[in-house]
């Protein structure tokens, strides 16, 4: 929607910041620890943390066969996931952060499946808009048009990888300190904007 000063903003229903939850994800619904923890340790190794490449391996194994996508979720999307939960900006996730990402992606996968009415493995523009609303993102026609062009394929359809990339981008921007400053009408600088844009 548009604010009084004419700036366009995304309206969300999640109303949170930090890594405890994500839009559409309830913090009380974390995946069970065992054998989940064992899977994490297999990825993490001796240092007890995972990076975006480790996360991509886990997500590819979990979701690529289901969606018929040999490539799985792209490394760029996995980097966005890590950025959402990586509070100390090390580029790596501990177990609790990893659980948060996993729960988030699982929720988004369920949303994608629900709104893929024809079970084609992709969303139309209409389905995308409804899926975003169900997660808690209501955007203007102008913003939605930009999202559809940015994340749609040549036919305008949205793959699962593109869908999670889209939601991760919106989440990263709307939950950032940059967005909080905008919402409060506080000044921000170009560096704030670039830092958020590069990480989300």
From TrEMBL:
Subcellular location(s) of the protein: Cytoplasm; Endomembrane system
Disordered: annotated span: 1-28
Any one GO molecular-function label of the UniProt entry: calcium ion binding
UniProt xrefs under Pfam families: EF-hand_6
Key words of the record: Calcium, Cytoplasm, Membrane, Metal-binding, Repeat
Cytoplasm as UniProt keyword: yes
Low complexity bias: start-end ranges: 9-22
Origin: domain of life: Eukaryota
Domain EF-hand: 103-138
Keyword Membrane: yes
UniProt-listed InterPro entries: EF-hand-dom_pair (IPR011992), EF_hand_dom (IPR002048)
Coiled coil: none
PANTHER family, per the entry: CALPAIN SMALL SUBUNIT 1-RELATED, CALPAIN, SMALL SUBUNIT 1 A-RELATED
Protein name, per record: EF-hand domain-containing protein
């Amino acid at each position: 929607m548009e604010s009084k000063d004419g700036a366009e903003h995304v309206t969300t229903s999640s109303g949170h910041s930090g890594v405890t939850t994500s839009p559409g994800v309830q913090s009380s619904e974390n995946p069970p620890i065992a054998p989940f923890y064992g899977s994490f340790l297999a990825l993490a190794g001796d240092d007890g943390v995972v990076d975006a490449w480790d996360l991509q391996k886990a997500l590819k194994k979990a979701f690529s066969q289901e969606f018929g996508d040999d490539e799985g979720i792209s490394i760029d999307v996995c980097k966005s996931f890590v950025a959402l939960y990586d509070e100390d900006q090390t580029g790596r996730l501990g177990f609790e952060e990893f659980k948060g990402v996993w729960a988030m992606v699982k929720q988004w996968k369920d949303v994608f499946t629900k709104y893929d009415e024809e079970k084609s493995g992709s969303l139309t523009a209409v389905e995308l808009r409804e899926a975003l609303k169900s997660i808690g993102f209501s955007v203007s026609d102008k913003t939605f048009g930009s999202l559809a062009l940015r994340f749609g394929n040549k036919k305008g359809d949205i793959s699962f990888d593109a869908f999670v990339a889209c939601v991760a981008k919106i989440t990263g921007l709307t939950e950032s300190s940059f967005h909080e400053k905008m919402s409060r009408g506080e000044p921000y600088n170009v560096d704030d904007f670039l830092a958020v844009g590069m990480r989300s």
